[in-house]
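Researcher: Structure for this, please.
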Amino acid sequence: ANPRALFAAVSALSLGLSALLAAIGWIVLPIALGGASADLVFIAQIYTTIYLPAYFGALLLGGLFQGQLDMVTWNVVRCLVPLGYLGAIVALWASIGPAVGGFASANVLAHLLAVGVGLALVVRAGWLSFAPQWPVMRGLFAYGIRVYVGDVLQALRLRLDQATVAIWLSSTDLGFYVVALTIANAPQIVSNTIAYVAFPKVSQAGSEGARREVFGR
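Model: Predicted structure, token format:
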């Protein structure tokens, strides 16, 4: 599909998915945080509601440029999240001191920064559209369903151990564990970098034979 059709489709899908997951979050969070105060539960619900559309927006806007093999723009949008997060943490730390609420706010602000820049770049490229086409949405949804199982298994591999550590050990130990895990996963940078470039080229190939040739190279 052309970029305008993709922008309209992913915008509609991401907003719908955000609304669905936020609604689930408002139901699940009071149960998951049963031992926490009502104020903390409410903050978690508000954070989830704001974070989800910002997260999907930053992810999918960057993905549009990745799909067009505009790797420079994609990396600009993608890097705004960790760099903006770090900058917001430093600013909030200097002004109000370290706090969970401050870190959560910094995370949301970083994603909103990426969304704002991504939208500006989409407008500049002439891709802005608010008329989603059902065939494009259906194709994206069908593809997403097919790869969903693999993504869930990958997420479990990365998060299930952290959930177990969080249950049995202290928050300090969990912090050390997450940092150690990040360092241990450093070699994935190489494989992920290859995949980020290769998979859009594979998907752009015109035939099954051409896709196999690109994948083989």
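Researcher: Any notable elements?
Model: The chain has a mean pLDDT of 88. DSSP finds eight helices and no strands in the chain.
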